[in-house]
Every structure is written in structure tokens, then in C-alpha cells.
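Supplementary Note 3. Input sequence used for the single-chain structure prediction.
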Amino acid sequence: MLYPIIEPRLDFFFAKGFYARVNTETRRMYGRVYRLFVNPVLEALEGKIGQPSRFLMYLQSFSYLLSGEFAIYSDLATHLRIPSDWGLEVGMLAELFRNSSYGRICEVDLGLYDHKHKEVITNGLLSTAEESLITLLRTLTETDGIEVTTSFLKSLQVMYRRLAQDKIRQYHADATCNGLDFDRHEEESCVDSLSEVINAAGEKFLVNPAKTQLPGWLRTISAMPNIRERLREDAIES
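The predicted structure, written as C-alpha cells, is reproduced below.
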């Protein structure tokens, strides 16, 4: 993951890692928040806007948005404001969209990784979906000037469910062709739960559209000039 940004013959400032969300022991397909929520939501938002969105096209170019592994030049990192919630990954890419060019961003396939897979309903993955959608709505308001209303959210939910059902059929075919275990009832149940996230996220967005982000590094350095040295010392001690 570090190679693309430290190799002098290349010209990347940011490398995002991703890996296959498949448990090789149980032969189960995971990555459900992205597969069953973020992916169809992006398509639904594209349909709602009704015109090409550079931001949505940019997000859809990534193989897996919700992977947290990345490498970045410190000079670029100082200009980014990172979300302080479960929308971290989408928020990071939104900040890069504002502060960097497409040609300086790359994605690296990290192969297989034994990820700690969680249950969607009981282990906080609904929060990840909710905060990711709030970040999407906020960024699209800034970049595309969309107007988020109650009727907008209701129609978005209808479009999402239809597209998510299409995705389930697609993943069922993928699992069958690759000898993976696929519980269609569980996938359908996940979509039912994730569908309600659109209402919950939308209500929170309408109450507080600005959202909270961590201060940018430039502000942090201004307030604490020796913050880099202190972090380095803490990292060495730990």
C-alpha cells in the first residue's frame, strides 16, 4: 500500500487499500454495508439528482469505499478535516475530492485478509451506514446543490430498496458461481434494516446539516505547534 506513494517514478499522494470481504473458512461473503447499502444508495442518489455528478462518479470508481487502510503524504493530510464518527471512510474520500486531483489518488488490492466481520444489526454496522449516508448528503449539498427534504428521502428509500433487491440477485449469482455460502433470507433482512437507516439518517441531517468534523491539522498545529513531535514521542513510547 505504501509503494505507490513512495516510488519516485509514480506521482500519487494517496493510496487506498482494499481486500476481498470473503471468509475463506466458512466460504461466506461479507462487506454487507457496502454491498447492500452504500453501493445501491450511490446509484439511487445518481438517479435522484438526474444529472452527472462528479462526486458520485468519483466514489463509484473505488472498488470498496469502506476500507480504512490508506497511505497519504503528510502535506496533503494537513489540509483534510476528518469526520469524528462512523462516516470516516466516506468523509475521508470527500475531503480528498475537495483537496486533491483524481490523478494523484490510487487504489491497492491487498488480497485476502481475515477481517473481523460483524453482525449488521447488533454490532454497530447500522451506525456506519447511517453516518456514511449523512456524509454523502452533506457533501452532495455542497458539491451539487441538492435540496434534501422529507419527500426526497422517501423517494430515495423507494429507489434504494429496488436497487438493493437487484444487487441481492447479483450477489446470489456470484456466490453460486464461486461456491460460496449465501443466505438470501439474511441478505433480504439486512436490506429491510438498512432501508430504515435512510429515514434515521435523513432526520439527523435535516436537524444538523453541517455535521461535526475534527479540526484540520493546520488549525491543530496553529494551536499546538509541537503536536507532531509529541505524537511521534507517544508512538515511540507505546
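The two ends are 24 Å apart (CA to CA). DSSP finds ten helices and five strands in the chain.
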